Amino acid sequence: AALPTPSPSAQFVVLGVGVALLGFPHGALDPLVASIGGALRSPARMALFLASYLGLAALAFALWLAAPGVALAAFLVYSGLHFGLGDVDAHGSRPPTVVRASRVLVHGAAPILHPVAAYPAEAAELFGLLAGADATRVQAWIESSAPLAVAAWVALAVASYAWPQRWPGRRQEWRGAGELALLVAAFWVAPPLVSFSIYFCAWHSVRHFVAVDRAVRGVFSLRAVVVGLAVLAGTLLLLGGGHVSAAAKAVAAA
Q: Could you count the other beta carbons within 10 Å of the beta carbon of residue 130?
């Protein structure tokens, strides 16, 4: 909070380095997770998995080219559910379905809603670039809707953690509430790119590493390592190609 706001270029460097070192690798573990379920047990199954996996990626890319606004909205909703499930399942308690669902929404929405509400101008510029929309109109929409969205989020967060019923692991849930409060404070203090870098790289990705490590004990193999490294290497090559192709454009848009 006491440090000056870093320049946009510095923020992009923090995000790029963090995602390259921690964000991409946690996604590159997807084939390893698939191997646990037997998806890589034979050449035919591996081909089916890779075709499905890369096909979904291609469809997402095509949707973003055809309808960037729709793609951005879908991406944010899906990311929120992904973040929420990862955070809530890591806390170890087993609340009723309605409580778990509300906490997934609360934890998943936090890294998206709060940076946007705290820094509407910066968020509008980013969303405008991603969705091909006018940043001024996006900012006006954020500023008009953010207060109500934040109020609804606070109400749902309080209700989900103040639920009177008891269940296994209920006593340890102060950790989840404390984690949520700490993250929300970071989202309001640091600029969006910096706070999201902290959450995605140092929180979500590391938590995913730990969860996968627990799941693969006893089935870890050199083959899975090779597959994961191959996916990571391919992703980094695509990143390099995108950087080169965008080099002639304006810095922010690139």
A: 15
Bigger pLDDT: 207 vs 153: 153
Q: Please give the radius of gyration of the chain, using alpha carbons only, rounded to the nearest integer.
A: 20
Asked whether 149 and 215 are in contact (CB, 8 A), the reply is no
C-alpha pair distances (Å), 45 with each of 49, 50, 52, 207: 6, 9, 11, 28
Higher local confidence (pLDDT), 62 or 25:
62
Inter-residue long-range contacts of 166-174, CB under 8 Å, 24+ positions, other chains counted: 167/93, 167/94, 167/95, 167/96, 168/93, 168/94, 169/91, 169/92, 169/93, 169/94, 170/93, 170/95, 172/91, 172/92, 172/93, 173/91, 173/93
Rounded CA-CA distance 221/72 in Å is 36
Rounded to the nearest integer, the mean pLDDT of the chain is 83
Helix (H, G, I), strand (E, B) or coil at 72: helix
Distance CA 93, CA 90 (A): 8
Place of tokens 């390893």: 32
> What is the Cα–Cα distance from 75 to 150, expressed in whole angstroms?
20
Residue 40 DSSP one-character state: T
Dist. CA 29–CA 124, nearest whole Å: 32
User: Could you read off the pLDDT of 94-145 as tens digits, one per residue?
Assistant: 777 888 899 899 999 999 999 999 999 988 988 888 888 888 888 998 999 9
Place of tokens 């806390």: 91
